[in-house]
Prior knowledge:
Layout: E1 9-11, E2 14-16, H1 18-30, E3 38-39, H2 40-49, H3 54-66, E4 70-75, E5 78-83, H4 85-98, E6 111-116, H5 123-135, E7 139-142, E8 145-149, H6 154-160, H7 164-167, E9 170-175, H8 183-190, H9 193-207, H10 216-233, H11 248-278
Helix pairs in contact: 1-10, 9-10, 9-11, 10-11
Amino acid sequence: MGPGGDVTAEGPSGVHRPQALLFAFFGGVVHGRDLPPIPTVVFLRLLSGLGVAEAAARATLARMVDRGLLERTQAGRTAYYRLTRDAAALVRRADERVSAPAPFDHPDGEWTLLTYSIPESRRDLRQRVRSTLSWAGFGGLRDGVWIAPGTVDVAAVLAGAGLDEVAELAEWFAASPMSGVRVADVIRRAWPVDQIRERHEEFIRSWAARPNGPDPLVQITCLGADWLRVLRADPGLPVRHLGADWPSAQSAAVYRGCYEALLPAAERALDVALGDIAGG
């Protein structure tokens, strides 16, 4: 069980919540293909292969419907699901980085600096902002002051998270370090660099041998969830301030190799499953 009693599933690089696995599935095998809504049984088989019990899988689907992430339709006794428009937009935005050939690279010396002031009484809002900024690649320098590598469209980030009101409480700037600034020290204050390195190395250890299991849908889903964990951890910290042995390029190459190896078989397996169900 995960935090708050949420069920989790074990992957090569750690534990994932079923919702994260389903997003990895949609992003890895469904996104970009003109597929019909997917019946419940496909999700149950997939999550079962990842160690999630049927009751927990059904509960996850129900929660995702309640949260506006999935649309549910019914045909006879069979329920079908597809991403809502908002959830599909999230998957599209994530795919821009997931499938990028160099997902950790930014123009050298470009940073985004953000500052905001939210009343202490709005702790719920402060937590939502912190979570949103972390996912967008920001690290906290000090209370209310955040920095991210590259140029981040902060207005779009806040709007996409339903935080338009925060835009009126924040300012953000394109920034570059001035002479004398020890960028490596700034990075280490804003991000847990050692933990990020370990996340990359853990992914490399888990997937470098390439997958060869019996179920490509299970494998590509687990690969995607593991890779999203790496992308959440590392916003693209500049390698020249981290040392020549920084492992981001190697982990990206491992991901691309595994994904390209798994995708044809995973797409065939999904097509077969959908065809078998449609054919009764």
